[in-house]
Amino acid sequence: MKESTMEYPRPHFDRSHAWASLNGDWDFRADTERDYTRTITVPFAWETPASGIEAHWLPLAWYRRTFTVPDGWAGQRVVLQFGAVHHEATVWVNGVEVVSHRGGYTPFEADITDALKEGEQEVVVRVSAPLDKREIAHGKQRSVPRDDFDGVCFTPSSGIWQSVWLEARPATYVAGLKLRPSQALDAIEVEARVSGDTDATLTLALRGTDVSVEVPVVDGRAEAVLPVAEPRLWSPEDPHLYYVDATLTSADGTDTVAAYTGLRRIEVIGEDLYLNGRRLFVRGVLDQGYWPRTGITPPDDAALRRDIELAAAAGYNLVRKHLKLEDPRFVHHADVLGMLVWAEPAATGRFSADSVAAFEEQIAPMVERDGNSPAIIIWGLYNEEWGLDWDIPGDPAKQRATAQAYDLLKALDASRPAVDNSGWTHVKTDLLDWHYYDESAASWGRTVAALLNGEQDDFPVKLGPDFVVRKKLAGHPDQPLRGLPNLNSEYGTGFTSVERGWQLRWQTQELRRHDRVAGYVYTELYDIEHEMAGLLDFERRPKDLAGVNPADVNATTTLVLDVVPVAPGRDLLSDSREVSVPVRVSHHGTEPVNGHLRTAWTPVFGAAPAAFDADGPWIEAKPFLLSGAAEVRAELPAGWTSGRLHVALVSDGAVIARSALDVDTHTGPVIGDDR
After folding, report:
1. What pTM was computed for the model?
2. Does the domain at residues 173-261 carry the CATH identifier 3.30.505.10?
3. Under CATH, what is the fold of the domain 560-664?
4. Which of 60, 329, 355, 484 has an alpha carbon 20 to 30 Å from 561's alpha carbon atom?
5. Same fold, 173-261 and 560-664
6. Which residue numbers delimit the Glycoside hydrolase family 2 catalytic domain (predicted)?
7. Nearest 5 degrees, angle CA 654-CA 655-CA 660?
8. Each residue's pLDDT tens digit, 170-182
9. In this predicted model, what pLDDT tens digit does every residue of 431-457 receive, in sequence order?
């Protein structure tokens, strides 16, 4: 029997003292087959090589395996847990139906105690994975018939794709444990849900301290406040976690559960985001949660940690998990490693009463499962009107559905900002985000400036090869266009990796030029199947970005060059070897910075130099205020007709910011230049 290398599957609601994994080999058959002649490895979707099946467009299949209940669980209720099964599952234990669940991204459970017998047990799972996914939550999985957004979708991921396991608990037990930091960040507020038929008392203890309270359970609820002496706030720089141990005592026995959170506060104040009272600039990257041989299931815990570490190494402080409720262990690793997270449910593909219901069914489980996470600072909902037929402005029913999703979410968790429809046509939102893709550096810069200074409230969106529409920031007259934080939450263009590196540098620079921007999310961290938009390839290997280092582009302190670049390798066309470039500083630290601007030449696309020339002009920058310009002058080395001019901000001998400019003295026309 193969066993998964994943650790305990539910770290935010931990009963790992009494669990047994059911991952590994299960018997498998398609619905059209009479006998279980194949073996599938759980928890990998049946389309994936890791599953051992690699069956595509299979709409219905069956799983079967045997198990034994651990001897030490006598007298306890035995519960079968599923992390996620796409899309609809019916479960039998020893021939008794124990649960049916719909929704491919949300967890479910079944108390199987009354179906158990002596000795070996049998569990059977029937999974329906419709080929036509348009009215169900399916995210980036392909559908037949196709979605309108099929070109950016991937291989479906059907069947059991998250862990399966057993847990033991008394008949009266802790059903939920909600932890939130107090407003003053000096205590943890606890709300517990209790299920059972007997009176019970709940003891809550702050691990590692002498703080412990005993509270009665009234109508299945118990609340308490656990004070924290000398609070240590959670932040990306110091991701400190506080663990709460819950012990429920009743006539049915003792139930123990552990959970954790962090003391942190995320706020929207005017057009800015604040984390723990400090202004926050979001430097985010899109992560869609796919792996080469395992599909939407991470191959192991190390893969989840590695993706977070790769994002951090590229200078990002936030990961947007796109159109997918990721395995909860990803959120756990983000909590531990200090990576901020934008979390959102999977999209549907067509607008109908059923698709709206399917989308909304994910909201409460999302908040219940992941709401204790300090890393999650933004909740997303709809994306680019997917599941709303790309027509919020033209249909009041779609406007109501968008606002309703926002209201449902905020009723469950008002402590985080929420985005109603990421990308455009907002109806009711806490953040004014927009998705803007443009191959032209010149029109990119103009459009970003016009959106931010109020000259325009719409921008072009390419929905097909020859189909471009203009999308407004707001899709309802009651949604303000100003006064909320602005985020460009998808951007990044270029057909080749050289072009993508070039656009990453210059487009991100233009976002850093504007102090009114609260952050950005680059698309994306790694390639997926046919989609080659990543900084890394699908195997998470670095790509040739033509000498552009994402860590420099996304640094806390960056340089902004007053140049409209022409093309990769030819940023600035000059009729002489002498160039003059105005340089500014964008700084998002807590204290001002200053230093000298210094330069060095390498060949075009050359790597960053080891040393720079003598001190150039002095420049200073205050936090979150673009500095004035300092003029940098340089001359191409003798005999060179082109070269890369590296510019660095050096303070006390250390390079704290850098950029580069490719200069070309061959000043002929450049195809595609629309300046």
Report:
1. 0.96
2. no
3. Immunoglobulin-like (2.60.40)
4. 484
5. yes
6. 266-419
7. 165
8. 999 999 999 999 9
9. 999 999 999 999 999 999 999 998 999
